Amino acid sequence: MHHIPLTRIQKLICKRMLESKRTKPCFYLESRADVTELMAMRPKLRKASGVRITTNAFYIHALALAAREYPLTLGRFEGNSITISERINVGFAVNAPQGLIVPVVKDAGEKALPEIAREEKLLTDRARDNQLTLEEIEGETIALSNLGAYGTDSFIGIVPPPTSTIIAVGNVIHTVVPWDGEMTERKIVSLSLAADRRVVNEIYAAQFLRFIKEKLQNPQQLT
């Protein structure tokens, strides 16, 4: 039998995720977005802005705009009240050598897509080089997890302890669907939402998820 000792960060993640599963009564919703236009737009945006804009940057931006429209998703249950954060700080998971790290794009609702893209790349690179500061991993008010790069079609995330909402994004899948009266290949992505029912109800969450879907399907609204 081989035992693998946990690192300090792994112990912390285990403790926080167990706390979340034990204390937060979550429910789950899933939708699928057509991101054909979004994927086609990326090279043009890179040429125009001089910034490599990943799909993750689009997801962070759409999530931040949705949170601004539906602020309860930034709430946290505390005793007999819900505290809603005034800041939209999007934590996004990064696979780093020292384990899963969640850097935070601060005030994402006030930033344009190219700015978010630059910050996302900087934070991702710093996470993989084990150079993140405490400030860069603190303050998360809403979460994003994207496993599309690893070939996962869809999954459900665990709501991190500081938040009440997480969006989990799967792989962009090429799918043949009816389109303008004929069968056409489109690019479809799964969006799964997990939310703390004490803070967000199902109708509110469905509207929030639909807002994200509509923004991703109309990416000109994100530029």
Order of helices and strands: HEHHEEEEEEHEEEEH
Supply the CATH class.
Alpha Beta
In what range is the share of β-strand residues? 25-35%
Low-confidence segments: none
In terms of structural class, how would the helical and strand content be classed? alpha+beta
**What count of domains describes the coordinates?**
1
What overall geometry do the principal axes of the alpha carbons give?
A: globular
Estimate the mean pLDDT confidence: 94
Instruction: From the 3D structure, determine the CATH topology.
Output: Chloramphenicol Acetyltransferase
Tell me the Rg in angstroms: 18 Å
**SS field, number of helical segments:** 5
Distance between the termini: 53 Å
Give a written overview of the molecule.
This protein has helices at residues 8-23, 36-49, 55-69, 113-128, 202-217; strands at residues 26-34, 75-78, 81-84, 90-92, 94-96, 99-101, 104-105, 142-146, 165-169, 173-179, 182-196. The model has no long low-confidence stretch (mean pLDDT 94). By secondary structure, it is an alpha+beta fold. It starts with 7 loop residues before the first helix and ends in a 6-residue tail after the last helix. The chain is globular and about 55 Å long. It has a single domain (27-222), classed as Chloramphenicol Acetyltransferase (2-Layer Sandwich). Helix 3 packs across helix 5 (202-217). Strands 1, 4, 7, 8, 9, 10 and 11 form a seven-stranded mixed beta sheet that branches.
